[in-house]
Amino acid sequence: MAIIEKELYLHTPKKTTYEITYQLINKINSNVKNSYYMYVKEHKLLVECFCGEIEFKDVVELKKEIEDNLKEVVKFNILVDIQEDISTLSIEKLDKFIQFYQNLEFSSKIGRMAVVTSTPTQVVRTMLFIDALKENNTPIKVFSSVKSALDWLNTGIDLNRVKSILENFKTPVC
After folding, report:
1. Do the beta carbons of residue 29 and residue 36 sit within 8 Å?
2. Would you call 72 exposed, middle or buried from its count of C-beta atoms within 10 A (0-12, 13-18, 19+)?
3. What is the pLDDT along the chain (174 residues), one digit of tens a residue?
4. Helix (H, G, I), strand (E, B), or coil: what is residue 145?
5. What's the count of helices (H) and strands (E) in the chain, helices before strands?
6. Dihedral sign, CA of 114, 119, 120, 122?
């Protein structure tokens, strides 16, 4: 039995850096329900993902956490995936979020923002958000695929890496 255990131990693959990173991300984001992010430093890209029913307070908490963690970053782009967001957002809540967003310090550090959507409702909400933020002069576009969003952001990050990040966000933690 000891030989089999040793053999199993030796053949058990070690965790990759990505797996360890995702575990840390899940621990960091565990207090923010259905809202996730990861900053990819070498590409100056913030990847955000919103899944399921999102509460306004959760988004506020996430944005404050991002602002705290990216204080030293001068400029970055954002990829926001809301394809699995099923929230029903009233105009009042959207206005409240826009006012909150405009007051965030990091909003002036954003080079470009790409929002990936999958439903007409998500597109409409995003277009209202874009319209309200015209004065910020941050280029924001809506996309139906991660690939086209990444092409527009032009950060040089590999598509499969971003897809892997997003899949890890969307995979329930057991």
Report:
1. yes
2. exposed
3. 333 333 333 333 444 555 545 445 544 444 456 888 999 999 999 999 988 887 878 888 888 889 888 889 999 999 999 998 888 777 888 888 888 888 888 888 999 999 999 999 999 989 988 888 887 788 999 999 999 999 999 999 999 999 999 998 887 543
4. coil
5. 7, 5
6. negative
What CATH number corresponds to the domain at position 56?
3.30.750.24
Q: Taking the model in full, what pTM does it have?
A: 0.77
Amino acid, res. 156:
G
Domains contained in the chain, number: 1
| Structural domain harbouring 7 | 2-170
Give yes or no for a contact between 152 and 143, defined as CB atoms under 8 angstroms apart: yes
